[in-house]
Write a structure and sequence with these properties.
Blueprint lengths: L2 E7 L4 E7 L7 H14 L11 H13 L2 H4 L1 E6 L13 H8 L3 E6 L13 E2 L9 E2 L1 H9 L7 E12 L2 H7 L4 E6 L7 H6 L3 E4 L9 H12 L10 H4 L18 E2 L2 E2 L9 H19 L1 H17 L1
Parallel strand pairs: 3-4, 3-8, 7-8, 7-9
Antiparallel strand pairs: 1-2, 5-6, 10-11
Length: 308
């Protein structure tokens, strides 16, 4: 059970309210509703000596002390291998973002919804063929056991899906809940695709042993775009794929390493010249390495110029 400390300070009073989030699994809206109910029914309300503080200061309270209660995205991962996610979800920026409540993750094992004697989640395909397919009933039951938030996407991770790209991640940040269904074996029963999943997503034009790897990539790509995950928001704005161009070359100390020197323009202090150099490098690097992106950038640039 997580515990958040929400503080409001005045000259005379300092209120510390602990919201125990057993209700947190129900989503941010429920937390906000329960929190407001707690405030209005508790003796702490009397400590707010000026009634005009209530609305405006509550907004400040939530945005400054615990923004996650307003903007939290919920990730539900349907997987046969829950342990796969243990370390990645506790490490680095992802671990810190989850710890701060910017997002929440819940893992559900479809094997818990297999009720036959051997708790089977796979079976042979009708018509014959190589390998086994994941059965539809445990997957449907696992997804249907979850709470349903207002804006939800049920994503099947499969080589047949749309390849991941930055614009997809940006669009997925607008959802309240993302349910990630990890395929395994030779795939899933077709009825999972047609009647359960609302979107199919692929990591690329290759085949992996399981859907957990692309699920983790999607979670990482979406979560890092959530406000508060990355310390400096500008680092997201100017990186590769945000403008259809690859990122420019970057250097750090020492200025000279094994005879390889940092370009003089970067140490010149001329910010206009640095910005121009970086833009040129982006264009040239994209033209050489990703001609498809370069053509897209040229088309988008020409379209923008026509609108002016």
């Amino acid at each position: 059970m997580r515990e958040y400390q929400l503080s409001y300070g005045t000259k005379r009073h300092r209120i510390n309210i602990f919201l125990r989030s057993a209700i947190y699994s129900c989503g941010a809206q429920t937390c906000l509703r329960e929190y407001l109910t707690f405030l209005t029914t508790s003796s702490y309300l009397h400590a707010l000596t000026c009634s005009s503080l209530a609305c405006s200061q509550l907004a400040i309270l939530f945005s400054d002390s615990c923004p996650s209660l307003v903007d939290t995205v919920r990730f539900d991962i349907i997987t046969l291998f829950p342990d796969f996610f243990a370390s990645p979800l506790e490490s680095g920026l992802v671990g810190r973002a989850l710890e701060r409540g910017i997002a929440e993750t819940h893992i559900t094992n479809p094997r818990d919804f297999a009720y036959d004697k051997h708790r089977r989640v796979d079976d042979e395909p009708y018509g014959g063929g190589v390998g086994m397919l994941m059965k539809p009933d445990p997957l449907f039951a696992a997804v249907e056991s979850l709470p349903v938030l207002p804006k939800r996407d049920v994503i099947l991770l499969t080589p047949q899906g749309e390849p991941m790209h930055q614009a997809m991640f940006q669009q997925l940040t607008t959802y309240d809940q993302l349910v990630l269904v990890c395929g395994h074996y030779e795939g899933v029963d077709e009825r999972v695709r047609t009647h359960l999943a609302t979107r199919e997503v692929s990591l690329g034009d290759f085949v992996l042993t399981c859907g957990e790897i692309p699920a983790l990539a999607l979670l990482n790509g979406v979560l890092r775009l959530q406000p508060g995950t990355v310390g400096k928001p500008d680092s997201i704005k100017f990186e590769s794929f945000e403008t259809a161009l690859l990122d420019y070359p970057q250097y750090t100390r020492p200025a000279s390493f094994r005879g390889w020197d940092v370009p003089p323009v970067l140490t010149s202090g001329n910010h206009q010249a640095i910005a121009q150099w970086r833009r040129q490098q982006q264009q040239e690097r994209t033209r050489q390495r990703r001609p498809d992106l370069y053509q897209r950038w040229q088309a988008e640039t020409a379209e923008e110029e026509q609108k002016r």
